[in-house]
Amino acid sequence: MLKIGVLGAGHLGKIHLRLLNQSEKYTLVGFYDPNQENAEKVTQEFGYKNFTTIAELIEETDVIDIVTPTLSHYECAKQAIKAGKHVFLEKPISNTVAEAEEIIALSKEYNVKGQVGHVERFNPAFKAVKDQIENPMFIETHRLAEFNPRGTDVPVVLDLMIHDIDAILSVVKSKVKNINASGVSVISDSPDIANARIEFENGCVANITSSRISLKNMRKSRFFQKDAYISVDYLDKICEVVKMKDAPEVPGDFDMILQNAEGVKKQIYFNNPEVAPNNAILDELETFADAIVNDTTPIVTLEDGTEALRVAYQIIDCFKK
């Protein structure tokens, strides 16, 4: 089993610690948190070993799980990679695209693997339909959250929207052509609600809305492609696939038939795959272990995380125009 250590024992860090402690693919060595009071509290409550320096933790591990504030991702990753350790980085990969590109370069230089924590790729509803999303031409997403002071130090684009940016980039096999966006700061110093329209070179258009000041939580995406409509509810973990095919000459009594102005008839049918329940965070961590052991490409690469960050900053730049 791979020996892993966690940097950061905040809200998400404690979740990672608990799951890694249960994992059959890792041995949890311990953690480091710069807040000594918090570190001692976590050790007393859960029994995880608290290391007094990052260097000491890195020395004892094969893999470093970085769940620190985004501002410190680059320095933590650089220190771990230069010690020859594989790195898992919570999203976003780093504070700037330049830092992200340097992390990629270092990982290649020191021959280590890296994965970014874009957890929605492992959401069971998305996993259930991903293979059926083929050349979508219009995508609409809504990611709305009730207000929570945690995370408001960054724009909603980096806090919430980046989840959908990554998921969209993973299914649209085309380069970004143009971006238009607007954002509004309501109660934070940075935008709390934002909308972006991303146009791709192949003609696909994605319309993304994110808010952290909503009255209810919502995380939904809809994908439209030739002869199919696919919806994913990341929050309730359900999906729906509606497809169309040429109608039979003699429809059945319960067949759903549509006829357009030219007289072409199409039959609507539902092809909803089974959604297998899982723990998405544990899945992303354990598939990274598989990639290391089997020497395969991680599901969410450092390059993927960098591209999502690049698009996120292009959206943020639109706010300044």
TrEMBL record:
Pfam (any one): GFO_IDH_MocA
Name used for this protein in its record: Oxidoreductase
Domain GFO/IDH/MocA-like oxidoreductase residue range list: 156-216
Signal peptide, first to last residue: none
Domain of life of the organism encoding this protein: Bacteria
Domain Gfo/Idh/MocA-like oxidoreductase N-terminal: 2-118
GO molecular-function terms, A-Z: nucleotide binding
SUPFAM superfamilies: Glyceraldehyde-3-phosphate dehydrogenase-like, C-terminal domain, NAD(P)-binding Rossmann-fold domains
